[in-house]
Each structure stands twice: as C-alpha cells, then as structure tokens.
Design a protein that fits this description.
Keywords: DNA-binding, Transcription, Transcription regulation. It comes from Nocardioides caeni. InterPro entries: Homeodomain-like_sf (IPR009057), HTH-type_TetR-like_transc_reg (IPR050109), HTH_TetR (IPR001647), KstR_C (IPR041642). By secondary structure, the chain is mostly helical. The protein has a domain of 142 residues: Tetracycline Repressor, domain 2, CATH 1.10.357.10. 74% of the residues lie in helices and 0% in strands. α4 runs parallel beside α7. It is globular. The termini are far apart.
C-alpha cells in the first residue's frame, strides 16, 4: 500500500551534504516524473535513484505533492537567477511583451516533458488547497520573476494582483496544451495576447 505522509512541514537542508542530497532527490524526481507522471511514480524509486534512504526523502518531502512542488520551485529559482534564465527589467513600452516571453519560455521548458509538467501542475493545485510552505514560496518566487520582468521597483498590491492573474492564465493555457486542446504555437499566441490585454494598458500605456 502507498505510504500516507504525515501532515508536517518539510525539513530544510542546511549543510553542504544535505543540500547535495536534496538536489539529487529533485533530479531523480524530475527524471522519474518525466517517465511516469505523478500517480505512477513511486517514492521508493525516487529514493533509490537519488541514492538516499527513504527516511531522508520523506524528511524533506513528506508527500509526492511536496516533492513535485519542490521540483517546480527549483525550476522557478533557475528561471530567476541562473544561466540563460536570468530575467531583467524590460524598458518602457516592452513590459507586457517581456512578461509574455518569460512565461512562454517557462512553458516551453515544461512542455518539453509533458508528464513532468502535468505532475508539477497537479501538485501545485493540491498544495494550493493545503496552503503549505512550499506552495507559498514557489508562487512568491514566480510572482517576483514576473514583477522583475515588468520593471516595477516598488511593487504594490495591484502589481502582484496583475501578475497573479497572468500566472493563472498561463496555467490554464498550459493545461489546454497538455490536454490536447491547443498546440504550443497557439499557446504562445494566447499568452502574448493575454499579456498585452491585461498588462499593456497599465505598464506600457497601450490601449486594451
């Protein structure tokens, strides 16, 4: 029978060795999630692939929901701060387009591994209902990436509301692609249109 995780907060890795194990777990979950999806992937297989004890896995990720939200969070962190994923503020007149391109790039990356993308979105939805720390941190990090692309130096509640609505729109578009309703090119066009309509009037001065 599947193990039922206790309702507790995931532990945080602190030492270099713990952080290495944590990263190995996320890599293993990404690999196996891409192969099997959320439901068919087993936590025991993740622990084996990562080379850690099952107790270590559950210490950091008490459930598959926590685990795949952790994978999503790690991708957002990469988008925010490393390599080609660095997001910089767009100049005036290009801010809505900049947010659209960030979302399109992130979406293309996720859709390259559709089973993993579905697992991350399912986990994020479940975590939203639970209101756990991982969900809160992952979404806050993503909102800050979009705020940075908008070039807003001192964001207020209305700015965060705008990026939250864009994020929700983006999630819906991704689900449509994963369900075969639209293709990736149509998704890109939809995101650009949504960003222009929602963000253009406020941040670029364009007519809606």
């Amino acid at each position: 029978m599947p193990r039922i995780a206790e309702a507790r907060q995931p532990a945080e890795p602190t030492s270099a060795e713990q952080k290495d194990r944590y990263r190995r777990i996320l890599r293993a979950a990404s690999k196996l999630g891409a192969e099997h999806g959320l439901e068919r992937m087993q936590m025991n297989d993740v622990a084996k692939e990562a080379g850690v004890a099952i107790a270590t896995l559950y210490r950091y990720f008490p459930s598959k929901t926590d685990l795949f939200v952790g994978v999503l969070h790690s991708q957002i962190q990469w988008l925010s701060s490393s390599g080609e994923g660095v997001v910089t503020a767009a100049p005036a007149g290009e801010r809505a387009a900049a947010v659209a391109e960030v979302l399109i790039g992130a979406g293309r990356g996720m859709l390259a591994r559709p089973q993993l993308a579905t697992a991350m979105l399912q986990a994020n939805n479940a975590a939203q209902l639970q209101g756990g720390r991982e969900y809160t941190e992952a979404n806050a990090a993503f909102h800050n990436v979009l705020i940075r692309a908008l070039g807003v130096e001192e964001p207020g509640d209305e700015d965060y509301r705008m990026v939250r609505i864009m994020e929700q729109t983006w999630y819906g578009v991704l689900v449509s692609v994963l369900n075969g309703v639209i293709d990736a090119d149509q998704a890109d066009d939809d995101i650009r249109l949504a960003s222009q309509l929602l963000l253009g009037p406020r941040y670029d001065g364009s007519a809606a």
